[in-house]
Design goal:
Largest sheet: 6 strands, parallel
Strand content: 5-15%
Number of strands: 8
Helix content: 25-40%
Structural class: alpha/beta
Number of helices: 8
Strand order of the largest sheet: 5-4-3-6-7-8
Low-confidence stretches: none
Oligomer: single chain
Order of helices and strands: EHEEHHEHHEEHEEHH
Radius of gyration: 17 Å
Shape: globular
């Protein structure tokens, strides 16, 4: 059997299944989702934060020589953060959070210093060192990411997310995620401005 963790993996499977050998497939949901799905049954529209960046710890991966993608992940995340910074300068009322990758939690002091160097004179929040992002998704408003599995988990739980996809083959053709994927800074800025005021239901229906 092939076990899939989310509905996007089902899209990938359907896209490539002619090249797969299998008897059957099942969609079980994200790994460890049984630990947190009960938190999202009501999934209200009262997030603590308006905008959240889901990090892939690209700067730390570069530092450690462990970049996972065959493209410039660090450049992509810097572009995302540049857009967010521009948006926050003109929208000081927005509550912005940086959701750290587990790799960054291990290097917590360095992570704080890294993001402080980017968001000088801008108010923002950052994950606690031992915080689990999957237990706090409903608090995070619109999530923005280069590519993070936690973002797919957030979608699975009915939350708002957009992806920066410049330089990567994502999503597959005709994916249901295509309307929440952007490939340049202006597209990202426009999607952020449009999406933050939307309720989760409005965001999902429109995209």
């Amino acid at each position: 059997d092939i076990i899939l963790c989310d509905l996007y993996q089902l899209e990938e499977f359907n896209h490539h299944k002619e090249n797969c050998i299998y008897n059957s497939f099942k969609v079980w949901g994200p790994e460890n989702s049984s630990e947190y799905l009960s938190l999202y049954k009501t999934n209200n529209d009262l997030p603590k934060f308006d905008l959240t960046f889901y990090s892939t710890a690209s700067w730390l991966r570069v530092e450690n020589g462990s970049i996972d993608f065959g493209n410039d992940m660090l450049k992509a995340e810097k572009s995302i953060l540049k857009v967010i910074k521009k948006f926050l300068k003109n929208n000081s009322n927005i509550k912005f959070k940086i959701a750290l990758h587990p790799k960054e939690s291990i290097k917590y002091k360095e992570a704080i210093e890294y993001y402080s160097s980017i968001f000088k004179e801008i108010n923002y929040y950052i994950s606690d060192q031992n915080e689990r992002s999957d237990l706090n998704l409903t608090k995070n408003g619109l999530g923005v990411t280069f590519f993070s599995t936690i973002a797919l988990e957030s979608i699975y739980c009915g939350n708002k997310v957009c992806f920066w996809t410049q330089g990567i083959q994502f999503p597959v053709n005709n994916s249901n995620l295509k309307n929440i994927c952007v490939s340049n800074e202006q597209e990202l800025l426009d999607l952020i401005i449009k999406s933050i005021p939307k309720t989760k239901k409005e965001f999902i229906v429109e995209n």
